[in-house]
Amino acid sequence: MKKIFNDIRRLTEFENDLKKLSKKFRTLEEDLEIFIEKQLQLFHKLKVDNKGIFPISDLGITYPKIYKAKKFACKSLKGKGVASGIRVIYAYFENEDSIEFMEIYYKGDKENEDRERILMHY
């Protein structure tokens, strides 16, 4: 994979979420790579807003910016396309040009992001 951002990190909690979800959705790791290459590059590098990524602004955190991705294509969820119901929460450190993945969840299991986790890290 070509390098799009200076750094891409994953919180341990994100790794745990991913491992758990991967049992249900086998293509998740691959889907995440495509998500970085397509969605995140479009949004952060090419400044194209396809209404799939939203800032979470009411956390009281000014830096880094925290985002929720609502459009995430998961090949394991056939026929759903980007409306898979998988949500990705991440921080974008603009000055360092880096991404830190914080949470991934399936909307069928859980309604919203773990705000405590976000606030604990920033």
Q: How is this structure best described in words?
A:
By secondary structure, this protein is of the alpha+beta class. It has helices at residues 12-24, 28-45, 115-121; strands spanning 7-10, 53-55, 65-69, 86-93, 98-106. The protein has one domain: RelE-like (YaeB-like fold, 2-Layer Sandwich). It is built from three helices and five strands. The chain has a five-stranded mixed β-sheet with strand order 1-5-4-3-2. Strand 4 and strand 5 (98-106) form a beta hairpin.
List keywords for this structure.
single chain, 122 residues, alpha+beta, YaeB-like fold, five-stranded mixed β-sheet, 5 strands, globular
The general outline is: globular
Q: What gap, in angstroms, lies between the N and C termini? A: 29 Å
Radius of gyration (CA) equals 14 Å
CATH topology: YaeB-like fold
Range of helix content: 25-40%
Number of helices: 3
How many domains comprise the coordinates? 1
CATH superfamily: RelE-like
Low-confidence stretches: none
Largest sheet: 5 strands, mixed
Corresponding CATH architecture:
2-Layer Sandwich
